[in-house]
Design brief:
There is one protein chain. The protein contains nine helices and four strands. It is mainly alpha-helical. The protein folds into three domains: 95 residues, no CATH class; 50 residues, no CATH class; 106 residues, Cytochrome Bc1 Complex, Chain D, domain 2 (Orthogonal Bundle). The chain has a two-stranded antiparallel ribbon with strand order 1-2. Helix 6 crosses helix 8 and helix 7 crosses helix 8. The longest helix is centred in the N-terminal third of the chain and has 43 residues. 13% of the residues are buried. It binds heme C. The site of heme C has 25 residues, from helix 6, helix 7 and helix 8.
């Protein structure tokens, strides 16, 4: 019995270790996780404990065997017939499967007899009843913890908690890494030469095939005139580059180009304004007059 108890305790402690961890923000790499040493140590201890247990069980069995051997020898010497005690496991097995053997079923046959159909009054197997009582106990515990005392969260509450946590994480990420978090609400107008040069190279590599090297337009619209199908502010352009225009050849570049590079290329597109390339595609969309950026950005934010 002790053996079983200790195995149970071990199992319970291992399982609860997993649950006791607070939900931490997901680190970029596994090895950045400050908890990793903890996990490694716990894992190591776990393996050691399993090994020790294994050896202990083995030693116990050897000991048991030796004790039996000695008892048998002694009873032989004294001339008493030796009767082996059933093992713990065997006892537990017969206790949990305590049914009436087939030969004795006549004793538990009920009196009534319907057209030859008779009823055997066998009881339920004890292991089944134990499970059943176990579920009753569990349901009471569950009721108390989840519904009466509110100690533990129900699935919906848990979901809400995770959502709040994720929002907080996203906020933190934005604050800690502004470049990775550029989107159409906070994209900047840049005049920095390196950024624009980077935007140009991105444009020549990815965009020129449709918008032409000089931005004069081919499969895609002319980007040098004041007419835009989706608006000519930096936010509008970034949005089109990031999300693309569904159903057209303009794909969403998010995932192919980093947010920073999308910001650079969008700014480069703006520098093409008024460059009057040769043989341009005729204007498409509406005339766009640049407004003050702050007012503009609120408009974009509101439309999101
Ligand atoms: C495979 C062709 C193709 C490529 C490559 C392409 N575009 Fe486009 N682009 C289009 C088409 C087609 C449209 C017009 C979509 C529509 O009809 O609304 C467009 C529209 C645009 C617009 C909006 C123009 C307006 O009038 O509002 C911008 C800005 C733009 N592209 C920038 C880019 C940038 C920057 C890249 C490179 C990162 C790029 N495009 C790559 C085909 C392309």
């Amino acid at each position: 019995m002790k053996k079983i108890l200790s195995i149970l305790t071990l199992l319970i402690s291992v399982v609860t270790i997993g649950y006791a961890q607070p939900i931490e923000p997901v680190p970029a790499s596994l090895w950045d996780d400050p908890m990793i040493t903890f996990y490694v140590v716990v894992g190591f201890i776990f393996v050691v404990v399993i090994l020790v247990l294994f050896v202990a069980v083995y030693m116990l069995q050897v000991l048991n065997f030796m004790v039996k051997q000695a008892t048998r020898e002694r009873s032989e010497k004294l001339g008493i017939p030796y009767k082996e005690e059933p093992s713990l496991w065997a006892k537990l097995w017969s206790e949990s499967n305590d049914f009436v053997p087939v030969e004795k079923e006549g004793d538990i046959m009920l009196d009534h007899n319907y057209d030859g159909i008779r009823e055997l009054d066998n009881h339920l197997p004890p292991w089944w009843k134990w499970l059943f009582y176990g579920t009753i106990v569990f349901s009471v515990v569950y009721l108390i913890f989840y519904h009466l005392s509110d100690t533990l969260p129900l699935p919906l509450q848990e979901y809400q908690q995770e959502l709040t946590l994720a929002e907080e994480q996203a906020r933190k990420l934005k604050a800690s890494n502004p470049v990775a978090a550029i989107d159409e609400t906070n994209v900047q107008l840049l005049t920095d030469a390196t950024a624009l040069a980077d935007g140009k190279s991105t444009f020549l590599n990815n965009c020129a095939s449709c918008h032409r090297k000089d931005g004069g337009g081919d499969i895609g619209p002319n980007l040098t005139d004041e007419y835009w199908k989706h608006g000519g502010s930096i936010q509008d352009i970034f949005k089109v580059v990031r999300h693309g225009v569904q159903g057209t050849n303009m794909i969403a570049w998010e995932g192919f180009i980093s947010p920073e590079k999308m910001q650079n290329v969008s700014n480069y597109v703006l520098t093409l304004q008024g460059t009057n390339p040769e043989n341009p595609k005729k204007p498409e969309g509406e005339l766009y007059k640049p407004k003050d950026t702050p007012a503009d950005s609120t408009k974009v934010q509101a439309s999101l």
